[in-house]
Task: structure prediction
Amino acid sequence: MLVIISVMVLIAGVSLYEYFSARNWQQVTSSERNELVFEHRNREYGAYQIRKGYDVRLMLILGVMIFGIGSAYGIYRIIKALPAEVIEEPKLDLTQFSMDAPDIKEELDPPVEEEIPPMEKQFSSCHRLLQMTKWTKRSSFKMNLIRK
Result:
């Protein structure tokens, strides 16, 4: 993490150095350039005010970003350094649960074996209906053969 912060500070330093060292006609926010461009114009209107206050706003934004990142990192380190909360569970008194089980001697009845009755040939009403339908079809078929 220290390496990342060092690189960020280095980049910010180089950027600020280049910004302030290159203050000439090529830079839009240069005060010399703004004075010449807006010499005989309305300076109260938009562009001049924006260009004039640009440097202050840039430094303010950069400062707030550095402060915010530094604060977030500081809070992270503080929270990480706090001791972890240890939750102690109450110890159970197991002596109140120890007791001997009573002797239970019950005689169980032997299982009853049921005899299964032999299967009888039974026809259900559906089966009878089916047999009747077959008989009817056969008889009607025979009757049709006789009629022809």
Notes: Residues 2-81 form one domain.
